[in-house]
Design brief:
mainly alpha, Arc Repressor Mutant, subunit A, Tetracycline Repressor, domain 2, 2 domains, 9 helices
Length: 231
Amino acid sequence: MFDKVRIDTEMADNGINEIEGQVRSRVLDAAERLFCEKGFDGTSIRDLTAEAECNLAAVNYHFGGKEKLYMEVFRRRMLAMRDYRISVINEVMSGGQGQVRLEDLLGAFVKAFIQPFVEEKGGVRFTKLMAREMFEPHLPRSVILEEMVFPVLTVLEEALAKVCPGLDGDKAVLCIHSLIGQLLHVIRTREVFAGVEGQRLAIGDLGQVIGHIVKFSAAGIRAAGKAGQQD
């Protein structure tokens, strides 16, 4: 008798947790769409509850208000991208048996960096959110730097130092800034010129662009590594 009560209670709790998880995800998805379209200031709590088909109590229960909800929208995407990029770097470095080519490392990282932004609806929305955040900041800078930028930077810097002797310290960081600058330009340019034909700045063949960035960056990084060995 007692075992049946315990099982029924556990099943009920699991059902409640599943429903709460669904509500939380629905609020995050709705908030991402609205923050992307209207920005933080242009999105009201009433907009959020209507889009997510929930009440104010659900928003406050799961997120504690609009500011924390905005942060969680970013963290959900950022942490997934961070973990994916780090895992790709680690996979490349562990699979070469000490003979990893610079082009292999760069190619894997470039694809891991770009693809989530250009191939998924959520990634495209996150691109727009990041653009809004640059001009209308609402997040503490530490959130992006400490949870996204620094962890990836550290792993990529260590990997570059292994595949390109002489490239360490400030030289590696500068090369990474150059690489990421190219990638951010590609992502932004694809969005700005989407659907525009005959425009020389439009980026159509993403594979060709990735190949160019890898080849161009590898040459620059090797040059920086040689200069480092001569210092």
